[in-house]
Amino acid sequence: MLDAMSNCNSKSPGPDDIPYYFIKNLPSNSLNQLLQIYNLIWEKGFYPDSWRKAIIIPIPKPDKNTFNISNYRPISLICTLSKLLEKIVNKRFPNHYPIYTDALKSVHGVGFSIVHNQTIIQHNLPAITNIFTAENFAILEAIKLANSLPTNNFLIISDSLSVLTALKNPWPKNEITQITQSELINTQKNIDFMWVLSHVGIKENEIADEAASLASQNKHDKTIDKISSNDIFT
Q1: What is the largest CA-CA distance in the chain?
Q2: Cα 46 to Cα 133: distance, rounded to the nearest angstrom
Q3: What's the distance, CA 109 to chain centroid?
Q4: Is residue 95 within 8 Å of residue 79, measured between CB atoms?
Q5: Which of the residues 19, 89, 102, 142 has the least number of beta carbons within 10 Å of its own beta carbon?
Q6: Helix 28-44 crosses helix 80-91 at what angle (to 10 degrees)?
Q7: Backbone dihedral angles phi then psi of residue 33, each to the nearest 5 degrees
Q8: What is the pLDDT of residues 43-74, one digit of tens each?
Q9: pTM of structure
Q10: How far is residue 84's CA from residue 208's CA, in Å, rounded to a whole number?
Q11: Distance between CA 144 and CA 194 in Å, rounded?
Q12: Do 103 and 134 touch, CB atoms closer than 8 A?
């Protein structure tokens, strides 16, 4: 946590109105208590509702008509304690480039998304697809994205523990899991995986969740027609 705080220089707090310098000047026993809170959030999956809120500030794009709302870009000021938790997660894998994945199945449809830096990839899936296959597709496409990029070390972050567990199974039943394992065997990249709980305030993870929601509603033109036989017979 101390390493993560050393790179916290923002002077603009979020809704909690707590600046970084306030946290940096806490006594050691208070810092230990804060670390215990972070560990409990990670273990129990309980995330404070107040940390989910943000102050949205519209910034006008240069040389654009300020009377047109589309000529503004939003900046989100999230709670400082939430930002610090995100930095702690990133510090655990300092040499890896993170790729966030998520999937969603709802009454509107099924979709998944991938988020890497400023890149957001969305795909719609057939309505019969179950959430396991959708989450698996997201990880498969994340591996393909990693293979297409020039860097070598990647951390694929998913909230689907069942898929990450299935990837360790030498005899998976799901065909998409089998294809994913094949991609991992043949890749020349160093790919690690991290499971995270849903909605724990990691910005990119929340972006992936929203993008998956839009993908499930087919608000784009990228559709994958493949499904697993498990989706048909279960």
Answers
A1: 59
A2: 26
A3: 20
A4: no
A5: 19
A6: 80
A7: -65, -40
A8: 776 778 888 777 888 888 888 888 887 788 77
A9: 0.68
A10: 20
A11: 17
A12: yes
Handedness of CA 207, 87, 154, 133 (dihedral sign): negative
Query: Distance (Å, rounded) from C-alpha 117 to C-alpha 200?
Result: 19
| 3-state SS, one letter per residue, for 144-189 | HHHHHCCCCEEEEEECCHHHHHHCCCCCCCCHHHHHHHHHHHHCCC
Amino acid in position 168:
K
* Amino acid type, 45: G
How does DSSP assign the chain, residue by residue? -HHHHHT-------TT---HHHHHTS-HHHHHHHHHHHHHHHHH----GGGG-EEEEEEEPTTS-TTSGGGEEEEEEE-HHHHHHHHHHHHTSTT-EEEEEEEEEETTEEEEEEEETTEEEEEEE-TT--HHHHHHHHHHHHHHHHHHSS--EEEEEES-HHHHHHTT-SS-S-HHHHHHHHHHHH--SEEEEEE--TTSS-HHHHHHHHHHHHHHTT-SS-B-----HHHHH-
Report pLDDT digits (tens) over 176-232. Answer: 999 999 999 999 999 999 887 676 557 788 888 888 988 888 755 567 777 777 776
Question: Rounded distance, CA 232 to CA 234, Å?
Answer: 6
Tell me if 112 sits within 8 A of 209, measured CB to CB.
Answer: no
Q: Are 140 and 228 in contact (CB under 8 A)?
A: no
Euclidean distance between CA atoms 160 and 196, whole angstroms: 8
